[in-house]
Amino acid sequence: MSISPRVENGATLIELLIGMTVGLLVTTGALGILILSLQAQNDNIKLARLNQDLRAMLDIMVRDIRRAGFVTNDPENNHDLIDPNSFFSTMPGGATTEIAIYSYGAGNANCFVYAYNRNLNDTVDSNERYGFRLANNGELEMRRSGDTNENCSNGSWETLTEPEVEITGLSFVLSSNSLNVTSMMTDTDGDGCLDGDDQNPNVASNPCDTGNYGNGVCNSGEACNTCTRDGSPDPACLSVRSVNIVINGRLRGDESVTQTLSEQVRIRNDRFIPAVP
Fold first, then answer.
1. Where exactly are the structural domains of the chain?
2. 8-state DSSP, 50
3. What is the pTM for the complete model shown?
4. Where are the transmembrane segments (predicted)?
């Protein structure tokens, strides 16, 4: 009985080359995907870092600007400090403390100055005048002291910007509404509705609490929202103000990574303007 010899055939050179080529293509594709993934992750980290830094700077501005015009923590017993408010006025010698927006350097409306009572005394000190501005070197600066709010050039300023971040834009827009204080203190027709919250304060109506009338809130279109001062006579007014802040930034090491943040700031202390008989 004869046994046939066993024949084993290996891969040919061409098959080996094809296998190596396919493997190389798969490896190259996987490596490309890995590189793109790492690059996207790196971009996300850079953007998150920039966003974090800009948000921190914006939060500092928002928290401090809200305090503009603060004069006393006990207004009930300190009416003489509120009217007039020395932190919302023009002081003797032009050392104004009123809030204001200026253009600084090459920018436009990129500086905001204000003041508030820091030590609860009756005088305005230099270290109670504050502000924020964009310097020409791309840094956000905060004023720690100043002699006046007439410009953005005076005082002591320090940077708030991290070395890796460049501020490419900063702008402030101030909006104001006048609230008629007098209208919310009188009831001319005696119907139980304050004049500024009444449908017709010269003619009694029954009931006065129809729709938005008589609800104790200054609704759009009511007299309490209108404060015309034309000297015949002038009512007492509250100037209700807010500031819109927009900040733009980018990374100095990678200018393609940019971010823009904005926020509306309601100034908590309204400016009181007394009535003129």
1. 187-226
2. H
3. 0.78
4. 12-36
